[in-house]
Amino acid sequence: MKVLITGAKGQLGGALRRTAPDSTLITALDAEQCDLTDSGALREKVASENPDILINAAAYTAVDKAESEEELARSINADAVGVMANALDQSGGKLVHVSTDFVFDGTSPLAYQPEDQKAPVSAYGRTKAEGEGHLRAGDLLVRTAWVYEAGGANFVRTMIRLMKERDELNVVVDQIGAPTLATGLAQTIWALVGRGAEGTYHHSDAGVASWYDFAVAISEEALALGLIDTKPRIRPIATEEYPTPAQRPAFSLLDCSKTRMVLADEPVHWRENLRRMLKEEKALG
């Protein structure tokens, strides 16, 4: 099976390469090798590679910056997806697209099902929702949330850096979801591809957390591993106390039961995966 992966240098792109089945022939592209804002070059690249599967792990993810750069975000998160789908129409390949909990408005009292109505509240969310609209029958959409990985640019590593610098941190307590280890997400994507899955699926780690809960857990696990010397005071604050250009969904927990049922596997709790990531982070030095 010939697979083309975009976003090669991202957290998920790296995890997809590390966990790829032995039977796959991988070509992985980063932004330097394929500019997703250049529709012509992107179309030519997909055509020349002629993949059986194209996994689009690339995205414009600067949530706040997207408020002032919505057209740039749209060109990467939406327009490029349409180009990929169109190019694959010619070759017969399948598109596997990764999206986000930000396509929802966060007002649901229950975890979001794959088929729930989208209602994004930010430019980033709008462009990701538009990207989903370019998928064809037979393609695969996998939504996820709060992704992190050892060595990547993410909330966990930012918290550890700040915990080394400060005695007290303020972290939002009224935004609820579930963290997701990129390695587990990649393994789920490969498993869905292997089963020929089509349509929309969700993947995040088991459990529920606020950003405050996540930060507290990071401090406890990091202290136990010697990644920080002392545990700072972490103060829970409301979203209104930490204003940002982009609105975030207050509740964006994803219901992953369909995914787990199809794959017949057990979800890993986010705290267990956090511990795993921090051990890998320590090994990286």
How would you characterize this protein structure?
By secondary structure, this protein is α/β, with parallel strands linked by helices. It has a domain at 2-152 and 178-206 and 253-267: Rossmann fold (3-Layer(aba) Sandwich). Helices cover 39% and strands 17% of the residues. The strands form 4 sheets. It has a 6-stranded parallel beta sheet, with helices on both faces. It has a two-stranded parallel ribbon with strand order 6-9. The longest helix is centred in the first third of the chain and has 22 residues, at 70-91. The chain is globular and about 55 Å long.
Q: What is the name of the CATH superfamily of the domain at 2-152 and 178-206 and 253-267?
A: NAD(P)-binding Rossmann-like Domain
Strand content: 15-25%
CATH architecture heading of the domain at 2-152 and 178-206 and 253-267: 3-Layer(aba) Sandwich
Rough shape?
A: globular
Count of beta strands: 12
Range of helix content: 25-40%
Rg calculated over all Cα atoms: 19 Å
C-alpha termini separation: 36 Å
Largest sheet: spatial strand order = 2-1-3-4-5-10
Question: What structural class is derived from the secondary structure elements?
Answer: alpha/beta
Q: Oligomeric status of the shown chains?
A: single chain
Q: List segments where confidence is low: pLDDT < 50 over at least 5 consecutive residues.
A: none
